[in-house]
């Protein structure tokens, strides 16, 4: 093959290469979605007017740096209890440890009850915890106990890491069935999309659990055609962030 022909060959392949390497990805536009995370310190945006589902941070559970004993505390965060009249509301808690003392459960469940009593359409709680794949058994045990404490009318959602579908023990994943109602798989870290997220998406069906895909506002994303064909796929949740 001549040098001229080789050059032409690569020119023909260039559009395919750009597609496969993700150059055709677009920034996540929150206006294309109807489910959002609303985190502490993030200003409300007009896009919230179209929301059908809100995941609203209300606290974190962690060991206090100010407490020399290293005790675990519930730290209230997020907006004051509003009065929302439409859609679904999930009350979200960021967990940095799974070793919760009894007062933490009381504070958390009391807060959820106050949200409900204010007339908000609360459907459940979400635990945001970065459970490493090899410790998923421990996380499942924690969630089983939490499910038993949670009033029956509330659903239980968790965030999940993408590599659960590839590297987790199948028995550990199976243990989540009947405990959690959904897993929202995060395709971002910090404030940016994870570069190789597309490599994990085909395996999400292996979990056998209802799942949503978490996106970061302004991050890179290209929706694969096969995702909407999955019987377990329940849509997207966009993490809103302040404009830079």
From TrEMBL:
Residues 1-26 form the signal peptide. Gene3D superfamilies: Glycosidases (3.20.20.80). InterPro entries: DUF3142, GH. Transmembrane segments: none annotated. Keywords: Signal. This is Protein of uncharacterized function (DUF3142). It comes from Pseudomonas chlororaphis.
């Amino acid at each position: 093959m001549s040098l001229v022909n080789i050059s032409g060959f690569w020119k023909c392949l260039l559009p395919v290469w750009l597609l496969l390497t993700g150059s055709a990805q677009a920034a996540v536009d929150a206006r294309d979605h109807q489910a959002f995370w609303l985190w502490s310190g993030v200003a409300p945006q007009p896009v919230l007017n179209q929301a059908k589902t809100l995941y609203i941070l209300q606290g974190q559970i962690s060991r206090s740096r100010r407490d020399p004993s290293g005790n675990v505390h519930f730290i209230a965060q997020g907006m004051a209890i509003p009065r929302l009249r439409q859609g679904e509301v999930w009350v979200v808690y960021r967990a940095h440890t799974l070793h919760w003392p009894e007062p933490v459960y009381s504070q958390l469940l009391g807060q959820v009850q106050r949200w409900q009593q204010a007339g908000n359409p609360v459907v459940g709680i979400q635990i945001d915890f970065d459970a490493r794949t090899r410790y998923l058994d421990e996380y499942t045990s924690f969630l089983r106990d939490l499910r038993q404490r949670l009033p029956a009318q509330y659903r239980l959602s968790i965030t999940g890491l993408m590599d659960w579908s590839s590297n987790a023990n199948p028995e550990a994943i199976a243990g989540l069935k009947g405990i959690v109602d959904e897993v929202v798989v995060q395709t971002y870290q910090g404030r940016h999309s994870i570069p190789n997220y597309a490599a994990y998406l085909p395996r999400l069906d292996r979990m056998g659990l209802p799942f949503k895909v978490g996106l970061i506002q302004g991050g890179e994303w290209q929706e694969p055609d096969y995702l909407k064909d999955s019987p377990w796929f329940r849509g997207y949740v966009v993490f809103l962030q302040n404009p830079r």
